[in-house]
Write a structure and sequence with these properties.
Elements: H1 27-52, H2 59-90, E1 106-112, H3 117-133, E2 140-146, H4 151-168, E3 174-178, H5 185-197, E4 203-206, E5 212-213, H6 215-227, E6 231-236, E7 239-240, H7 246-257, H8 259-270, E8 281-284, H9 285-291, H10 310-320, E9 324-328, E10 334-336, H11 342-358, H12 370-405, H13 426-453, H14 455-460, H15 464-497, H16 516-540, H17 542-556, H18 558-565, H19 568-576, H20 583-586, H21 590-604, H22 612-618, H23 620-629, H24 643-654, H25 658-664, H26 667-675, H27 677-684
Parallel strand pairs: 1-2, 1-4, 2-3, 6-9, 7-10
Antiparallel strand pairs: 4-8, 5-10, 6-8
Helix pairs in contact: 1-2, 1-13, 2-8, 2-12, 2-13, 3-4, 3-6, 3-21, 4-22, 7-15, 7-19, 10-12, 11-15, 12-15, 13-15, 15-17, 16-17, 16-18, 22-23, 24-26, 26-27
């Protein structure tokens, strides 16, 4: 994987199309989407200009006009794209190819990082069973590539892998690799796989740890790749399943009902200049290896260092080289999960925010297609929209404050009989507000209408009445959660701009509530902000308070809303009443049911609950296998002493029993032991017995 350059690119380095007759750029769709968005934005800006220019326009009113135009353009583009998706779905204009045979080899790759082994290995086993059921299983291998840094989880992964191999027999075709250091995180994990084993496979299907894909879906992706010699990446549309908390079920419902409209519109106007979301997609391995070696960006994080949101960049580079990237939005059988609470999604969002803003360093890279730059801009605007919205609110408050408390300026440079006041056209303002809300909510309405029109889908969502009630519930609580996310994302943008880096903590995937004290700690500032904003708005003008009431209510209720978001009982209560239902929830996909059953079986084995060192000590065969899977280590130079290894060795020598070692060794020292064959030998020689943590060491 040669490292690519963002500063130089020669068009001659790109490949020629193998099937140019099949390569059609959807110009009409793009003219409609972008031309329509531009026209709507121009109209909105024109109306806003007349709203604020009743009399002499002040500086703050011009600022308000600019901020409104920026925010309006963002929702206008989503609106026109959703119209395109709505029409395509209504008239069934999008159809994915079917698959009957395969001739090439594909690998299914699941990168994992400190995940539950029962969950991830059950998912791989279920995916493999589903592919085998298609009769084309011989064309697929499976790799679990681990970047795990928790020593106990690492040993649990090896135990689960060996148990799964034994379960499946000699034709398992499932492989496992643990990487000593998670260099460049997920992008580095995939790159390590590609450079070591990628040459064996024409294509790779990349998953996330929470991914599930049916055999039919994967086979159809592989067939589509084989049939299209110009395809570099083909992306599926994952639906959210297996969610039970209130917030996660809101997301699950929204993704199922509204998501296809948005995704279909995006797929149509993007055409072969599409994007990649990092998982549940198939990639041509050699094209990826040739063109997706990511360079480090100059400087320190958050804008420098390794590329955080690598998927957008990989799509950009593979497209620059002449390969196509596109989505099959109607391809069924692709699933994922979502964070269970508002705090969990905010934690994930912080990392995504940094990754997308980092793209400001890449959007001007040489040779990128215009549509690729649009994808980068869209990703950045997804997070910049929050501070723009917040600034628009602040400017609105300042203008009302100016009207109510500023002294009128009677004697200006130009003689006037009346003072200069900021004035508005209230009728036009109300009409513009209605237009803005209509454009904002239209994609949701399109998705709801399509679901109501489809009898089978409508019944699977609980029937027409429950479906409408669910949509109203989702819209209401989205409005409540929106100002909280606005403040959180604005804070994230500010932190990134001042140079604060984010970590890479494993995502919490299980349903469950967060302790109330943590919720209060995370949202007390939001509640205080809502209180101050509400009191200030009310003191300035009751009309301002009414205008800001949705934002004020959301912030004031941040703590109870966040508590409710992760509440499992509330989510299950709504489920029992048929609200926020999705077809996959009422009638779970067979692969999801199978994965859940396998997860219960694997959980009973207790791999996730065991101490890794004690397990290796008690099982010589496991220890021998663990050592056999370790990479060869370069011999150290004399005099170079690694502190963690020296401490781990001293503790193992000092330990009288395995219990002593288990108690004394810290996580970093445990990882050193697990990577070192000599230290594993010391561990193996320790006798069983109780801990002697308080005993004095013998003198020699």
């Amino acid at each position: 994987m040669p490292v690519q350059s963002f500063r130089s690119w020669n068009a001659s380095e790109g490949r020629k199309r193998a099937a140019p007759q099949a390569w059609r750029t959807p110009w009409l769709a793009r003219i409609f989407v972008f031309g329509g968005a531009w026209a709507l934005t121009a109209y909105g800006a024109w109306e806003m200009y007349h709203v604020v220019s009743v009399s002499r326009t002040t500086f703050l009113q011009y600022v308000l006009l600019v901020l409104f135009t920026v925010n309006f353009s963002w929702i206008a583009l989503a609106f026109t794209s959703a119209i395109l998706g709505f029409c395509a779905l209504l008239f069934r204009l999008v159809k994915s190819p079917r698959a009957e045979t395969l001739t090439q080899k594909t690998v299914v790759v699941m990168p994992i990082y400190n995940e539950s082994t029962a969950r991830t290995f059950a998912a791989v086993a279920a995916i493999r069973e589903s592919i085998e059921a298609t009769g084309l299983g011989a064309h697929f291998d499976y790799f679990i590539v681990s970047d795990t840094t928790n020593p106990d989880i690492w040993v649990a992964e090896e135990r689960a892998f060996l148990a799964l191999r034994q379960r499946l027999g000699p034709d398992a075709r499932i492989y496992y690799r643990h990487r000593p250091k998670n260099h460049h995180r997920k992008a580095g994990n995939i790159a390590d796989f590609v450079t070591r084993w990628g040459g064996h496979y024409e294509h790779m299907v990349v998953l996330d740890a929470d991914s599930l894909m049916t055999g039919t879906c994967i086979v159809r992706l592989a067939a589509a790749m084989e049939a299209d010699p110009d395809a570099g990446i083909i992306q599926s549309l994952p639906l959210i399943i297996n969610r039970n908390t209130f917030f996660a079920r809101l997301q699950q419902f929204a993704a199922r009902v509204y998501g296809p409209v948005i995704a279909t519109g995006l797929a149509i106007w993007s055409g072969r200049d599409g994007n990649y979301w990092g998982h549940n997609a198939i990639i041509r391995t050699k094209a990826f290896a040739d063109h997706c070696g990511l360079p480090d960006l100059k400087g320190k994080p958050p804008f420098g260092g390794h590329v955080l949101s690598h998927d957008f960049v990989e799509a950009a580079l593979i497209r620059r080289a002449g390969w196509s990237v596109y989505m099959l939005p109607d391809l069924t059988g692709s699933y994922e999960e979502s964070p269970p609470s508002l705090i969990d999604i905010a934690t994930r969002d912080r990392r995504w925010c940094q990754g997308n803003l980092q793209h400001s360093r890449i959007i001007g890279a040489k040779g990128l297609k215009l549509s690729t730059r649009q994808h980068f801009a869209t990703g950045m605007m997804a997070y910049l929209a929050s501070p723009f919205w917040l600034m628009q609110l602040v400017v609105g408050i300042l203008i009302v404050l100016q009207v109510n408390y500023a002294r009128p300026e009677y004697f200006t440079e130009e003689f006037r009989l009346f003072p200069v006041w900021p004035r508005f056209d209230p009728e036009r303002a109300l009409n513009l507000f209605g237009l803005t809300m209509a454009i904002l909510l239209a994609p949701k309405l399109f998705g709801l209408l399509l679901t109501l029109f489809d009898g089978k889908l409508r019944r699977a969502c609980g029937g027409g009445i429950r479906l409408v009630l669910s949509a109203l519930l989702e819209i209401l609580f989205s409005a409540f959660f929106a100002p909280i996310m606005m403040v959180i994302q604005s804070g994230s943008v500010f932190q990134i701009l001042v140079g604060r880096d984010t970590g890479w903590n494993p995502q919490r995937r299980d349903d469950g509530s967060i302790p109330l004290k943590d919720i209060v700690r995370r949202h007390r500032a939001h509640t205080l902000l809502g209180l101050v904003a509400g009191l200030s708005a009310f003191m300035i003008a009751t009309s301002l308070f009414a205008w800001m009431s949705p934002t004020i209510v959301g912030l004031l209720l941040a703590i109870p809303l966040s508590w409710a978001s992760g509440n499992l009982a509330l989510g299950l209560w709504l489920k029992r009443r048929g609200l926020l239902m999705t077809p996959e929830e009422g009638d779970p996909p067979a692969i999801a049911s199978r994965a859940n059953a396998l997860q219960a079986e694997f959980a009973q084995a207790g791999f996730d609950d065991a101490d890794g060192l004690a397990t290796l000590h008690a099982d010589p065969m496991l220890r021998a296998t663990h050592e056999a899977m370790l990479p060869q280590v370069q011999p150290r130079r004399r005099g170079e002493i690694e502190p963690d290894r020296a401490v781990a060795q001293a503790k193992l020598i000092d330990a009288e029993t395995i219990a002593d070692a288990v108690i004394w060794l810290k996580p970093k020292e445990r990882m050193v032991v697990l990577h070192d064959r000599a230290l594993l030998g010391l561990l193996a020689n320790l006798p069983d017995g109780p801990a002697h943590a308080g005993a004095e060491a013998p003198t020699h």
